[in-house]
Amino acid sequence: MLSSFFLPLYGMFVLLIGGVAVVLAIGYIVARREYELEDISREAPEKPTKSIEPPKLGKHLAAQLVFALLLVLMSPKLPRDMAIVLGSVMALFIALTLLASRPLVFQLAPKFSGIMARGFAKAITLVSALLTFEAFLAWMGFEDDVLGILLLPISLLVIFYAAYVMLTSAYREGYY
To answer: How many Å separate Cα 23 from the centre of its chain?
Structure first.
């Protein structure tokens, strides 16, 4: 079974999910605080200046659904616990992408143009691809091979790149 030096594979998944949850919670708190500060600093417009168009996230959603389908096809040969954890995480990622594609989520955001939602969807899609690759390695039995050993640095690179994509899209949207 693939594991790091300190944690088993399931511990790494729990740590990954916990880290994502903490980042999402901190991001929500910071965004809410910034919105409240901006709302206090200027008067609200009399009527909306533009209608909010939902961002086009169809290709990211389709890719995540393909990854979920591949995971479902591989699940009979995967360990039961791994299949449950990966399936739950994939369902969470699909739900987050659907949530980001709804304009109601962003109606309170100042200067919304959809850049941040597209960056978020791209980052979640990258992590979904990583999870599918991890399941593929376990499905093929390569978890103790060279690919399994290289999985930890590859995972870290993908997660850091996904965080970079989310942060730069927030910057381009005008939050920093």
So the answer is: 10
